[in-house]
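Weekly structure sync, notes
Attendees: PL (lead), two postdocs, one rotation student
Agenda item 3: pending single-chain targets
PL asked that the sequence for the first pending target be pasted directly into the notes so everyone works from the same version. It is reproduced below exactly as submitted, 148 residues in total.
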Amino acid sequence: MAELYEVETKAVNSAVKRNADRFPEDFMFRLTPEEAESLRCHIGTSNEGRGGRRYLPYSFTEHGVAMLSSVLRSQRAVQINIVIVRAFIKLRELVATHKELAHKMEELERNQREQSAHIAAIYEMVEQLTASADVPPGRRIGFVTDEK
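Predicted structure, written out during the meeting:
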């Protein structure tokens, strides 16, 4: 977040500490040690004991981002807040679209199972009808030709 707002990390951390009552758990939380280690592996931060992080980093929800921009009060913070909120809106729309698609897929699968059951029942009836066709042949119907 500090990089996005073009401020130092300690400025973000101190702004959050000064305004702790503005950041409830659903706005911001600290990463677990495992999550922080995973980030360290991905972003290439320095090793512990050699100038690495002393504290676990914060993670902000969309509401926390909005609150952070009000705490930092810079033009850059306002611009970044608008971009981030729009990204969260798009993400929410994308998730809603996937939920609708998943619901439609479940409905199609249910219909396919029902149709398969009906087709199996029809196939079984046809099998029964053809098996009971052991009626002796009667007189042939049609013309008889005298071919030898």
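Discussion points:
- Helices lie at 2-5, 9-18, 33-43, 62-72, 75-131.
- The chain has a mean pLDDT of 81.
Action: rotation student to compare against the earlier draft before next sync.
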